[in-house]
Amino acid sequence: MLDLLFVNACIITMSDECPVIKSGYLGVSDGKIACIGEGSCTEKATVVKNCAGNILMPGLINTHAHTAMSIMRGYADDYTLDEWLFKKVFPAEGRLDERAVAAGFRLGAAEMLRFGTTSISDMYFYQPSIAAIAEKMGIKVSLSNALVALDKGTYNPALDRSISETVELATNWHGRANGRIRADAAIHGEYTSFTEARSCMAELAQKYGLTMHVHLSETKKEHEECRTRNGKTPARVLYDEGIFDSRTIAAHCVWAEEEDHDIMREKGVSCAHNPISNMKLASGFANIKRMVDKGVNVALGTDGCCSNNSHDLFEEIKAAALIAKCINSDPTVINAYDALKLATVNGARAQGREMECGRLCAGLDADAIMLDCDKPHIQPVYDPVSAAVYAAKGNDVCLTMVQGKILYENGAFLSVDIEYAMKEAKTYGMERVIG
Amino acid sequence: MLDLLFVNACIITMSDECPVIKSGYLGVSDGKIACIGEGSCTEKATVVKNCAGNILMPGLINTHAHTAMSIMRGYADDYTLDEWLFKKVFPAEGRLDERAVAAGFRLGAAEMLRFGTTSISDMYFYQPSIAAIAEKMGIKVSLSNALVALDKGTYNPALDRSISETVELATNWHGRANGRIRADAAIHGEYTSFTEARSCMAELAQKYGLTMHVHLSETKKEHEECRTRNGKTPARVLYDEGIFDSRTIAAHCVWAEEEDHDIMREKGVSCAHNPISNMKLASGFANIKRMVDKGVNVALGTDGCCSNNSHDLFEEIKAAALIAKCINSDPTVINAYDALKLATVNGARAQGREMECGRLCAGLDADAIMLDCDKPHIQPVYDPVSAAVYAAKGNDVCLTMVQGKILYENGAFLSVDIEYAMKEAKTYGMERVIG
After folding, report:
1. Number of A:B CB contacts under 8 A?
2. Coil, strand, or helix at residue A79?
């Protein structure tokens, strides 16, 4: 007896051997995909959902987010990067306490569930308390508190919150909630830290077997100043220090050069591409076609929604495909299927969850979403992959499921009190941001 | 007694003297905005709508669309431009009859109403029958059938459907339906016609006082081949022929040069910027900042949804702002308010409807939309203009009204049988496209 059975579904599996099942079924048992195939299922189920006309597909994976920044959505638009960071974002972040960060995470994670995201690589602070919220919300999270260490003279790892939170996450949370919660190690960036501090974080990654999460060559200034300071690129600096000896997600990589792509392929470093944020902050267009051609694993992220201002991966998927076509003057580049891979298969690989999710295959976690296609802006559907990539939006997700548990369905948030989440963000969160 | 009164509304008026009313009212009488202001309204109304927490704003204006192409949504993605046009789009269009085009228009216009578009500049064929559909649907349309005349030897204006449809539209439809329906003249492009044929269409524009609608410098190839053929740019060719002596919408302008911008400003030619289509077909990024700085009126379009694949102007608004920032390496360029102007005030001006819509002011047509902001992906709202531009999507529109008549509200299409529209597009329309 299956727990849950989806029938009459058009399924985008994202398995290369059979990417699309035009009409089939997907059965869930104990949080895993028990069976998937064409036509009808012979097994019975406790709950049966008829998906006629809709698309079932893997949950989307957000490999670079600062989820709690959703309380700053629209707080600081259209500023220069320096003003944005030093006059708006940093002062506001200085006013955030644990409760405000919790409010931001709850709001942002609810938005992500609503828009079909099932797993987040989240870099922010107060992460052990966020882990507890994520556990209740049922979404998968890889949590990190990124090392920022500017002053070599006064740096003391024993007093560094990023170190202590990483240890706490690694010892108390890593692998908890049926594997949904993970600890990541994180270094904010080459330009915001020095070698010895970075090696403290790298040691934690090695010791606990954590994925490393870093910002890399996001802006031209950052990239070129590193070259001036070190005579090499940020990627080369981190490579030489052994940072990439742990599985790594490198966010942005807008200004990464060909030799950096070589490093990334050699070390299995994934790029977390954030096309919307990169445009909004005018950082530049990352050329993911070149990375993909080189064999680099490219995934997607929304970044903080203060520079976005959404957590809608459907928006990032379409933007990634379109930008790649335009900057390479070739409309065949990053086709719809390639684009969807970024947010599914490649995202799972970046997070180290490739044996767990990112595709719909028997044995993997039942992390799936459903798109309501009975809408004028999605019809007609010649090709479900095209419909998902070029026509659908996060708002068209009508069901989000993680490990077989439905967390969002047809307007209802089933694992979070959405009224409370919005009110808390609008009142306490906003007050702390404005100060 | 007002017909309709919106109360407790956060209103984005798009009037420069008072762009935002934090909490106010808007009254409708005989299809016009009778009153608008802060606080409460003293007049009574037949119907009162409480907008608490929501945003009321002008309906969006799509200045370049081939609406009926919505039946080809997803039919031809990721092809080279030549394959796309000659192997997919043209053969499919050759199979379209009046019924299929009607199905496509009905679907596309329903999508636009759902996403907050109240006025369309639509270039396609079978336009007199489309006028009748648009009249029933209540949406504003400026309809054209664009001249394509490749062979000088055999060209006969008396046999040219674009000429006869334009005359029919101008004599039977222009100004009908309380001004909602207009006829436009249209020339597909410099590269798909010759001088004498263009002058036939230009004469119609002059004779009937029509707006002219053309494609201009969409691709590098088109722009450079024109320079080689004529020793001047497409804009200069059309200028020298007097085409721009009528009010003109020039779509795309990706490769337009500084001297072309000068021409556009001098002649009041509006650019219909189509950022999504330009990226998907890899045509390039139009630099609208340069045009705006020059004093050119820049508006927005979705183009045909076979190269988009949406008719969501919220997507275009955000893309326009983001691309402008990124290609000019300056995040302050085209701020949220500037971006919203493209789809409202500037759109109305491009269509020659600036004394009629594009802003919410007493005396103008009551063309307005409401955004449902009670959603995690829009909260918190520090600035309603930012929320509308960077966070909201077409799907967040909960009410669309044209000339005081509500055409879409909370999932219900009030002027079109949406089940029929979708079925007709999925069956008859798809069959004709596939052939």
Report:
1. 192
2. coil
- Report residue A340's pLDDT band, with 50, 70 and 90 as the boundaries: very high
| C-alpha–C-alpha distance, residues B435 and B431, integer Å | 6
Q: How many CB atoms lie under 10 A from the CB of residue B148?
A: 15
Cα A368 to Cα A316: distance, rounded to the nearest angstrom:
18
Burial class (CB in 10 A: 0-12, 13-18, 19+), A389: buried
Out of B310, B326, B374, name the one closest to residue A282 (CB). Answer: B326
Q: What are phi and psi of A48, to 5 degrees?
A: -120, 130
Best to test chain B binding among A70, A111, A279, A316 (most B CBs inside 10 Å): A279
- Residues of B with CB below 8 A from A376's CB? 70, 107-108, 110-111, 114, 418, 421-422
Contact between A393 and B395 using a beta-carbon 8 Å cutoff: yes
Which of A192, A111, A116, A208 has the alpha carbon at shortest distance from A151?
A192
Interface of B with A in 78-117 (CB under 8 A): 78-81, 84, 107-108, 110-111, 114-115
> For residue A107, is pLDDT > 90?
yes
Number of residues that make up chain A: 435
Which of B110, B319, B90 is closest to A377 using CA atoms? B110
- Checking if the pLDDT of A352 tops 90, the result is yes
Q: How far is B322 from B326, CA to CA, in rounded Å?
A: 6
Strand-pair partners of A421: none
Nearest to A387 among B74, B78, B276 (CB): B74
**Percent over 90 (pLDDT), chain A:** 99
Best CA proximity match to B213, nearest among B175, B236, B182, B240:
B182
Measure in Å the smallest separation between the Cα of A333 and chain B Cα atoms: 7
- Burial (Cβ within 10 Å: 0-12, 13-18, ≥19) of residue A156: exposed
Q: Which of A82-96, A134-148, A182-196, B181-195 has the lowest mean pLDDT?
A: A82-96
In contact, B119 and B257? CB cutoff 8 Å: no
Closest CA to B9 of B384, B412, B429, B285: B384
Q: Please answer yes or no on whether B111 and A421 come within 8 Å at the CB atom.
A: no
How far is A391 from B92, CA to CA, in rounded Å? 20
Interface contact B282-A325, CB threshold 8 A: yes
- Do the beta carbons of residue B175 and residue B181 sit within 8 Å? yes
Closest CB to B393 among A73, A387, A393: A393
Closest of B109, B103, B148 to residue B126, by C-alpha: B103
Q: How confident is the model at residue A81 (pLDDT cuts 50, 70, 90)?
A: confident
Closest chain B residue to the Cα of A282, Cα to Cα: B326
Arithmetic mean of pLDDT, B2-22: 96
Backbone angles phi, psi at A172, to 5 degrees: -100, -25
CB B89 within 8 A of CB B72: yes
Q: Place A82 in a pLDDT band, splitting at 50, 70 and 90.
A: confident
Q: What is the pLDDT of residue B17?
A: 87
The pLDDT, as a whole number, for residue B336 is: 98
In the sheet with A248-252, reading across from the earlier edge strand, the strands are A60-65, A117-123, A140-144, A181-187, A211-216, A248-252, A270-273, A298-300
Whole-number Å distance between alpha carbons of B239 and B394: 37
Which residues are CB-neighbours of A420 under 8 A, at least 6 positions away? none
**CB-CB contact of A414 with B413 (8 Å):** no
Query: What count of other Cβ atoms lies within 10 Å of the Cβ of residue A331?
Result: 25
Q: Which helix (H) or strand (E) holds A123?
A: strand A117-123
Predicted confidence (pLDDT) per residue in B377-393, tens digit? 999 999 999 999 999 99
pLDDT of B81 above 90: no
Q: What separation in angstroms does the CA of B226 have from each of B63, B214, B425?
A: 25, 15, 38
The letter for the amino acid at B298 is V
Mean pLDDT of A408-429: 98
